[in-house]
Amino acid sequence: MSDVLSDETRLAADIERLKVEFPKTRELYREVCALLFFRFGVPPTANRLYNLVRRGTMSTPASVLSEFWAELREKSRVRIEHPDLPKELSEAAGELIGTLWTRAAASAHAELTSLRDDVEARRAEGEQKVVAARGELGRTETALEQRTAALLAAQVEIRELERQQAQEAAARKALEAQVKRLGDEVVARERDLDKVRDTFSRDLEKLRETAGRAEERLRASEKRALLEIDRERGAVVKAQKELAEAAKRAEKRDAEHRRTVEALQEQQGDARQQTGVLQGKLAALEEAYKSLQEQLKSLRATTRPSAQRAPAAESRPSARRATRKATAGKAAGTKSQT
């Protein structure tokens, strides 16, 4: 396949060179015929010549090809010129040599045809391989395009990752600065903490000493409290005994008081009864007093002033006696209530 491609490449390069050397069309076609037949061993045809040169019309390569074959046959004719040979013998010898040349040319042409068929088969196989190679090349190009797209995407992703990495680097630097600052703060706080620990240790020792003294005082207070509790227990027992005795005395007084109350209630009932009697008497006396007052008024209205003094003097002792009786009744009622 590489040999076929190299022959085609060399043929195209030689034709381009001949186009420069022979600007005339017929001379160019004649040189291309000689190039194909003598250098590459390919019999030229009108179509192939036209496809290779692409100049003039289709009749130009056909006429040039006819002239090429005629010139080639003329040059291939053998002439034997010797002064001692008769003309008939020289012609017969020339024809014999021409016949040998023709047969050799036919044999060479047959071999050339076989070689051409072999080359054509190889060319077809090469073309198939070229098609396969082109297909493989297409697939390779497709894969390459995919790889290129993936590479571009990867490059974009790499740029994005680089940008993120730069951001992360900046963030890392900021975090490192913050960590350093926090580390300095931690060191300072540890120093402060050491100072606080020392102060706390001293305060703790003082508190322990104070707690020891307080515990001693607490023990002493506890002893005193136990003694006081014992005394209080004795006092409570004594108080309970006194309370029991007082309860007994209170029960006695309560019984006496109940008896006294019952007697007083009986006296109160009698006094109420006497009060009712006295109130009835007092009402009768008040009625009598009112009647006496009315009588006195009537007497004052009917008698003369001189005569009024004598009855008045007589009525005064009776009024005084009624007043004394009422006062005595009230005093008796008051005594009965008490």
UniProtKB/TrEMBL annotation:
Residues 32-143 form the KfrA N-terminal DNA-binding domain. Residues 304-316, 325-338 have a biased composition (Low complexity). InterPro entries: KfrA_DNA-bd_N. It holds the Pfam family KfrA_N. Residues 247-276, 296-338 are annotated as: Disordered. It comes from the Bacteria. Residues 247-261 have a biased composition (Basic and acidic residues). Residues 265-276 have a biased composition (Polar residues). This is ATPase.
